[in-house]
């Protein structure tokens, strides 16, 4: 075994272990903050796997989008609403656990079946495009994948408008949940002056 | 690619002369440039800290450090030694693991980004194809480290500082990436080496700063904001937040933050000089001088000479920008957090978008000047 292949094998093993253990940690840990940080670690290791597959542009995009944007926003949200509250115990926890375990096991067996039946080996493994991939991705995005690419932007716009509506209740005349007219004074400024009453 | 020194090739050939296989030679070669760049980064930090102290002193009509070595040049080393031997304190109610991992996560991406900084045609660790995009991706990891240390400190000022740092970093990354995109559009490549080569045609006249003046200013403002330099040092605004996310840190963990912020400053200065000021290029093209003096451009001593001029020019331009950053620190007042976010989202973002549109238009209209 040559040195390059050995290095690749060691990297692959380490990255896969980090992905699996990290993902288990995200699901099983009690502390939501730890889960969020571990999720960042999982995203980073997936980027490492992309690097091993010679897809450096996809790896960098993975880091930028998933770690730099998605994960940062998740952590941001957790820290802004970091309420310590005890969760209510659920009555039928056992039957719920049985159902979710069976669903997960069914999915796992389906994926194992996919892994075993599909032919994964490429016709020509030497024909890796490597650094060319940035150009190829651009060509595909603006030709055969143009419609999904544009529709994704509409999806993001919808999400953004939804966020603005939720965050800026004062732009609506009626409250969304209760239907009552919104007291706009309250949102814009404190209803009574804070300092004058204290004299 | 024929032009310039190729140290890696010569080193490997030298080792093969001793009967080593090319793979072993490559493995022996690999750590050398990494170590070299790490040492260069740390020495750069020491020089910058000294400059910062001296220039700040001059701006305030003080003398600044003067007893440690001539003109106080040993002062940063004394500072570093002090931080090294200080007691490492983890507050009792803090989260030990996250408290330790935070500073590491802040420092490591910054050092990794030095991978793509070229000091000459072949004088960089790796000419990766995604080049400048790697830096943008890596710099987006930093806010996680800041949030982590802000949360783990178990201190409201730290948490607020961490949140501010993350908000600031996310807001300024977008105009930063857009102004880099305009350069990439003109170069047709993400690689830093290609970006410099595209500017090397006519010396100082072909530098990107003349073709991208708006992009240059936007990039510089955003780079300062990403480094959390004053006017944008809100995450550690001492009047409001004690020291932000660094409040609870002492000893070597604090030194990691300190080191990270200065390495980031130098890195940003280097990248501005690569993207806009012609990188390692001399203001008058070296080929022209060689032709004028009737010297062969491929002769070994000329090549060594051009390589050393390249390194000197890159470092000189970077330190000129560091000097400007230090002067800015003492001339501009700190902005408020709402002014900071307004500047990022309502001013820099539209301007950089318009800059990108105009660059694309100019590229199609005048392909010979704006990269066909």
Automatic annotation (TrEMBL), chain A:
GO terms for cellular component: plasma membrane. Its EC number is 7.1.1.-. Gene3D superfamilies: NADH-ubiquinone/plastoquinone oxidoreductase chain 6, subunit NuoJ (1.20.120.1200). It is a multi-pass membrane protein. The keyword Transmembrane applies. PANTHER family: NADH-UBIQUINONE OXIDOREDUCTASE CHAIN 6 (PTHR33269). Belongs to the complex I subunit 6 family. This is NADH-quinone oxidoreductase subunit J. It comes from Prochlorococcus marinus str. MIT 9314.
